[in-house]
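Thread: Newbie trying to understand structure tokens

Hi all, I'm a second-year student working on a class project, and my supervisor (Dr. K.) asked me to get a predicted structure for one chain before our next meeting. I've only ever worked with sequences, so writing a 3D structure as a token string is new to me. If someone could post the tokens and maybe explain what I'm looking at, I'd be very grateful. Here's the chain:
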Amino acid sequence: MKTKSLILAALVLILGAVGAYVAWDAMQTRRLPAGIVSGNGRIEANEIDIATKYAARVAEVTAEEGDLVDAGAVIARLDIRDLEAQLRAAQAQLRQARQAQATAEAVIAQRVSEADFAAKELERALVLFGKGHVSQQRVDQARNQRRTADAALTAARSQRDNAAEAIGAAVAEVDRLQELVADGTLKAPRKGRVLYRLAEPGEVLAAGGKVVTLLDLSNVHMTFFLPTDQVGPLALGAEARVLLDALPDLAVPAQVSFVAPRAQFTPKQVETRSERDRMMFRVKARIPEALVTKYIERVKTGITGVAYVKLDAGVAWPDWLESRLTRDGTAAGAPQS
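---
Reply by user tm_fold:
Sure, no problem. This is what the structure looks like when written as tokens:
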């Protein structure tokens, strides 16, 4: 019995030694060269809230949580029957205004003819009056008819202008209502994945009420933090690599797309150099959109991992930070980012 115990103890010691060696060897293998730094982070994407423009009842929600939707895809529809009725009334008013304008144009043509006839009558009366063939009263009557015809023409033109203004107002109202009717169909502004479904058919939402939250998969990135001494030499656009906890052996290419202009969290006192070095800045490493698009069905957010960035562009990536994705991005399979 004592011999068996000794043998088991020896086996445990040997296995522990082997495990320690393997871990040590892995640490040596994955040691970062000078000029490359790393930070822990998680995969994120911009969130877009698709909301109502005005208060309305939700008639239909076509998107489910987790759905991948294309740009322009219908997400939901609102109950807009009252707006459609208002639109029909506005279109009827527009037709009436155009008919009024056509009537005014016809009246103007009539008034122009009458004014021309009155002008000629006045001219003839003045000629006859000069020859003594008509009285002054006849001339005054012709002059009054001319003035009456001119006034009627001016009034007809004013009615035409009023009709034109009414048409402009009716067109504006029709355009406004058509826009509101169109806003009753909520569409995805870009390709993405539905993160949350926040409303159901039958619910009445206020203006700005959220229906779904969409993840914009055109900008997938890992957010991580680096200290002051590492952020200083870091350049926007610097090469980066992302290793996900779910796929630790598959390096994903990325680029530094953002460095916070201010420290995101700092100690209470920053008078000393050691304290200033502890100030941390938020950094984003963006995964190329072409790569995300290629593996769009597998893209997820929230997965943790490590981001590696180059402070020195001349430094070569170690072999364990290279993969089929960093070399050509055409191989099958992709990280679940």
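A couple of things are worth pointing out once you decode it. The domain at 31-46+216-327 is CATH 2.40.30.170 (Elongation Factor Tu (Ef-tu); domain 3). The first strand starts at residue 36 and ends at 51. Feel free to ask follow-ups in this thread.
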